[in-house]
Design a protein that fits this description.
It is built from 17 helices and 11 strands.
Length: about 525
Amino acid sequence: MVDDLKKTLWAAADKLRANMDAAEYKHLVLGLIFLKYVSDTFAGRRAELRVRFADESDDYFLPDASENGLMAELEDRDYYTEANIFWVPETARWGALRAAAKQPDIGRRIDDALTAIEAENPRLKGILDKRYGRAQLPDGKLGELVDLISAIGFGDDASAARDILGQVYEYFLGQFASAEGKKGGQFYTPASIVKTLVAVLAPHKGQVYDPCCGSGGMFVQSEKFIASHGGRVGDVSIYGQESNPTTWRLAAMNLAIRGIDFNLGKEPADSFTRDQHPDLRADFILANPPFNISDWWHSSLEGDPRWEYGDPPRGNANYAWLQHMLHHLKPTGRAGIVLANGSMSSSQNNEGMIRAAMVDADVVEVMVALPGQLFFNTQIPACLWFLARQKRRKSEVLFIDARKIGKMISRVQRELEDEDIARIAETVAAWRGEVHEGATITEYADVPGFCRSVPLAEIAEHEHVLTPGRYVGAEEVEDDDEVFAEKMERLTTKLGEQMAEGAKLDELIREKLGVLGYEF
């Protein structure tokens, strides 16, 4: 049912977009979804309180309360904040906005509502994007959008409402990323890649950090992983950073609607030059930094203590990101990073030396080569780096070649299926000796063409190149003589049939040409 709701809402919202750029329209839609959710959860808490105020067995029971007294009590903000519900001023509640949806000043009213909510909830200060009054939608379209979002019924159950809203929000993020193409990929990492990182790292408790967090997908999947494994989301502390102001706001809203406490820094900022968490040492780091960026360097970064394994080249940030993550990792922590394939083998401008130093220091744990066409914004082949300062298996690196797995979900888009992700995660867990209940892979073994555990000495012989295909070998092929003979017989028979058919066609052509007077 939720899937139908998501698709219906998206189709309607995309139709309303008219000629507006998807990158701009995205913020209007997601901001309204956030506003609807905040208002609905407030209304749900309000309905719950009304019932409890009338229940003699409840601690909240109000004996002899008049209707006016009851209404005044329902406006006490403490009842809401104690339940982690955002306080929504009366003028900002969805009912008031929907009633004014057809008014020509609906854009200004929405901006005013967002301003009022920010003023009443310090956690949201500077986060809500107030751009509705100047939106370039045709007359009446914004009101139609308000009516459309009204169709999302979150109900009175705050937990169920949060789940529905989260699914709708995540679906819209993915759809906008697809619609925006290259631009969209800057704020959204495809869910199957995020799920793979999370499944391998298994962040149960501690501090989770993403220094280029986009719209917060890494954190959301971490929350889902924890919940699905019986843990509590409160056991994890979220730290992130994002340089794009509008994307920074998207991330904050994405986390806020799920009730996740977060620290995205005081402001949007560059992680290299204005690190918002300089003293953080995280238990888990998950990141998809922009590939191969060339304009990252600043003179203030000369001699930075983060460059433990060598000065990263000024024309490519890949090895700056890797070292930034290691710098922010606890001694017992683990990191998973998405990078372009070139990072595994490049030897230009000191990259080969840095990679060799990292391998020799035994901080590279697992390397995964991914299939192509996973991203919205680039066809550059990608890989996953998993780093750890205290590895379970010393002096070895696990290589996984996953280039042949996954399925095409559109003409241009591929995704990893759940069984693909499970195979990768269970292979890593078995290799670490951390097999979990229900796993189908309980003991690690090299699988030709898919995975192999390689000693550091062998990697050094290959000049510290970390491309999995160099180490895992080729898949085993059936060499059963009987099977081969059967295949050969079938193919030979088919060839004979095709040759006979070809001869018939040749004779027919000759016959027809003869009728026309041609001689052979």
